[in-house]
Amino acid sequence: MDSLNALFSLGFATALTPANLLWALLGCTLGTAIGVLPGVGPAVTVALLLPVTQSVDPTGALIMLAGVYYGAMFGGSTTSILLNTPGEAGSIVSALEGNKMAKMGRAGPALSTAAIGSFVAGSIATVLLTLLAPVIAGFALQLGPVETFALMMLTFAAVSAVLGNSPLKGFIALLLGLSMGLIGIEGQSGQSRFTFGLLPLIDGIDIVVVAMGLFAVGETLYTATYENKIAGRIESLKGSFWMSKDDWKRSWKPWLRGTAIGFPFGTLPAGGTEMPTFLSYSAERKLADEKTRKQFGKGAIEGVAGPEAANNAAVTGTLVPLLTLGIPTSATAAIMLSAFQQYNIVPGPLLFDTNPELVWGLIASLYIGNVMLLVLNLPLVGLWVQFLKVPRPLLYGGIIVLATMGAYALRQSWFDLMLLYIIGVLGFLMRRFDFPVVPLVVGLIVGPMAEKHFRRAMSINEGDLTVFLTHPISLVILLVTAAILVVPPLMKRRQALLDSAR
Predict the structure, then answer these.
(1) Burial class (CB in 10 A: 0-12, 13-18, 19+), 168
(2) Which residue of 61, 277, 366, 479 has the smallest Cβ count within 10 Å?
(3) Quick count: other Cβ atoms within 10 Å of Cβ 363?
């Protein structure tokens, strides 16, 4: 009941102010437009907006960035269904059945079940966020520096071992991020380290520059180089746009199942949106009756409804560890964490006590944003289709120009511009050689926090490293971390032995 009281007395009172409603609408509109554009995801957009939000009220800025985040999930389905080219990773599965439906003249029902399913999943997931976040924050308040450091080790292991095709590449990316996080003045002694005599590095590497370099510059260079040659035909919006009675009957259960699958994955380190959407698609295929199962691969509406619901539920789920523990579980969440930091706000269990208007206003804006997105996506789908006709060179050139202007606006420094392009080339090479980018961002942002908690734990326990094994919660977390690192290689080796024995 306390959560509901706080939601209505603080949250909606904050989110329903004219200024914050405008920020929510702007974020949802930008997010939908970005989701529609192939090759441009929410991480790129949030990174580009970071310099702009420095002059905006923290609550309004974070409401807008959250609107961009879940708005992109709505918009991504449009590109998947009409062009068979996912606007972002979470919409890959929707293209399997959605584009087939569009070719059959059923693009309207496919877009409708995607939009309504996203609304249903987003609303249910926001209710779960409302109820669970204060509980998890209360539990997190009981964690000391020992347990917090162990939790961060779990995050490092998860994002490195799970993301990408190679755990080794994930750990290399993580170490690179941790190394970048060490640059600058060391908090305890006040001494500068790894600055190589360069004065601009005394304050460390600006997270905003890194985010724009990796995502805005690096991703754009990669997309323009390797994915710009993909040609696609936009399917026309012919036939009835609305879902039939049979479509509703076949969609509502996948919406609920997709929500149940997606939300837990969003709360996990390295959960992402790809895995729950594939699991949802697989579940719908297995649960379908014989007649419906034959339609999979030919345009089954269940294959759009379930994954789209899982996609949006997972996105809302990422806000649980971000707000309660200060731990990002996706690239966009990591960039949003840097947005908190640029306002000197530390997400975590104390956030609900120190900034209740901000956190509850942000949660309330999710309810409002879901309604806005439903209105934006259903009646205005014809408008979003026009975005698919934007020439790719103009789009990519615009992103590079905006990133350059944003980096220079931070401190009017040529060094930041040089750093932007160096990190942009690094991001391009990482994508080219299949190194995951998320571990680098998490290492850069969470690394200094982990160092602080480690030093505090060592100071309290007189340098005794065994303290991480004598605290029960820390021990359990470290055992889970070890399992993440050890079990997958053992299972692969076991499977290889079984294959060779056959």
Answers:
(1) exposed
(2) 479
(3) 25
Cα 15 vs. chain centroid, distance in angstroms? Answer: 22
Residue 321: count of CB within 10 angstroms of its CB:
24
Cα gap 305→247, rounded to integer Å: 10
C-alpha to C-alpha distance for 22 and 35, rounded to whole angstroms = 20
- Residue 368's pLDDT band, with cuts at 50, 70 and 90, is very high
Closest-CA residue to 258 (of 248, 245, 236, 273): 273
Q: What DSSP line would sit under 230-292, residue for residue?
A: ----PPP--S--SPPHHHHHHHHHHHHHHHHHHHHHHHSTT-TTHHHHHHHHHHHHHHS-HHH
Q: SS3 for 242?
A: coil
Q: What pLDDT, in 10s, does the model give residues 33-50?
A: 887 776 667 777 788 788
Alpha helix segments (H runs only) across 318-377: 319-325, 331-342, 351-354, 356-377
Number of folded domains that form the chain: 1
Q: Which domain holds residue 404?
A: 2-501
* DSSP symbol at 85: S
* Extended beta strands in 55-212, E state: 184-185, 192-193
User: How does residue 272 score in pLDDT terms, banded at 50, 70 and 90?
Assistant: low
Residue count of the chain:
502
Report d(CA 280, CA 305) in Å as an integer. Answer: 9
Of 193-207, 242-256, 291-305, 381-395, give the range with the top mean pLDDT. 242-256
11 DSSP 8-state letter? I
Joined tokens for residue 415? 């060094």
Cα separations in angstroms, 124 against 128, 139, 249, 319, 466: 6, 23, 19, 14, 42
Buried b / exposed e over 299-314, threshold 16 CB at 10 Å, is bbbbbbbbbbbbbbbb
What DSSP state is assigned to residue 324? H
b/e per residue, 449-465, with b = 16+ CB within 10 A? Answer: bbbebbebbbeebeeee
| Residue 228 pLDDT > 50 | yes
